[in-house]
Amino acid sequence: MRNESRGSDNAPQSRPGRATTFVRSVVTMLDDAAHIAPEHHLVRYSGRGTFSPGIIARAEGSSVFTEDGRELLDFTSGQMSAILGHAHPAIVATVREQVGRLDHLYSGMLSRPVLDLARRLTGTLPEPLQKVMFLTTGAEANEAALRMAKLVTGRHEVVSFARSWHGMTQAAANATYSAGRAGYGPAAPGNFALPVPDRFRPGIVDADGNLDWRRQLDLGFNLIDAQSVGSLAACLIEPVLSSGGVIELPPGYLAALRDKCHERGMLLILDEAQTGLCRTGDWYAFEHDGVVPDILTLSKTLGAGLPLAAVLTSAEIEQEAHDRGFLFFTTHVNDPLPAAVGNTVLDVLTHNRLDLRARTLGERLRGGLDELATRHPVIGDVRGRGLLVGLELTEEREQCVGDTDKLGAAVTRRCAELGLHMNIVQLPGMGGTFRIAPPLTTTDAEIDRGLAILDTALSDVTSRYPTPARSALPVSAPVRS
């Protein structure tokens, strides 16, 4: 027999088996995946912004934790929603118990959690807000409120603030002016913007240089009246503008706005997505002004981070809407699982008196920020109420237009590196304003730790962006009355 040499150049080359080929393919895929950004398959939805760095693995209390073990103190309460902190034991217990009993129903059916929440939530409100429907998001609630207002009044025109944010669905987006209007085609006809009564950056001032909000409001409605086709239906605003820069309405403004609305047969709709349920130190921000809206919308805080929203109104308006065939039949209207969570949120808020806690913590936070402002000239203003606080950065070097935006972004990044998650609002001409809204369950020590991190971040960043001392002059030249 002929003995073939294994080392012969003429010997056939062996082919890799299927198993070997599969292993090599898996290795190649893993290697490729290692070079692909984690968000590679996700649609980006933050305008020109991107996702926050890191991947969050879990959250507890006032902190979130990344997959690589870093802790971030959460001073935005998730998306301004988790007022009881993350993974609150009572919320966890409610979800576990309720999901095993009754989670979702046909939208026309009723359940005990929904009936209980309707009774209890209206019990926290003044007359005549005694009718409620439960939905999922703030945009959906505002959509339903505007739809109801248009049906009841028989009109279609809507007024909202020029720095408003009410959601990204159609009617809510049409009433939103702070972002997201360009590039999507024509907005619905009949939407008007009202000037924001910003006391730090006043557009119209009196003889003493202070905001003349009455004249500004009069001029705003003069312009609206000139543009209206006689079909003004509603005014939708936040009692404290959040995305608009944490702007508190001046004393008396909300009552004057209500009067302007009622003189024209309009309904006043207050969007308390972020201010409702003790965030500002009162159960509802409108209580501070003694003005009860015709329609109230709640969301974010009502579910303490879970998708629960509400539209509340009077029996008279609800009856008129029903008589006219009000239709807002959605997949998750009056669902029992989120309603059960809402009941637990009310339990915790009431038992722990978190309205008073928000005031106390807010004073501690404001005091700390005011102290920082004495040492960091870049802090132009500290404002807000309870645990919804705005800190606005300013930059007055005229030759460096846009520096404030860069400064705000840099401070945000540095805070994250040091273990504090902060949110910066950036609007054209406004620079950057931090929206500071920690959970109502935050401890004194966590407030102090957040302030210390912000102090360090400001020092680190401003050392690379030296700024002169603040001028006593206003940032932009206002109109004098």
Automatic annotation (TrEMBL):
Keywords: Aminotransferase, Antibiotic biosynthesis, Pyridoxal phosphate, Transferase. GO terms for biological process: antibiotic biosynthetic process. The keyword Zinc-finger does not apply. CDD domains: OAT_like. GO terms for molecular function: pyridoxal phosphate binding; transaminase activity. Pfam families: Aminotran_3. InterPro entries: Aminotrans_3, Aminotrans_3_PPA_site, PyrdxlP-dep_Trfase, PyrdxlP-dep_Trfase_major, PyrdxlP-dep_Trfase_small. It comes from the Bacteria. Belongs to the class-III pyridoxal-phosphate-dependent aminotransferase family. PANTHER family: ALANINE--GLYOXYLATE AMINOTRANSFERASE 2-LIKE, PTHR45688. This is Aminotransferase. It comes from Amycolatopsis taiwanensis.
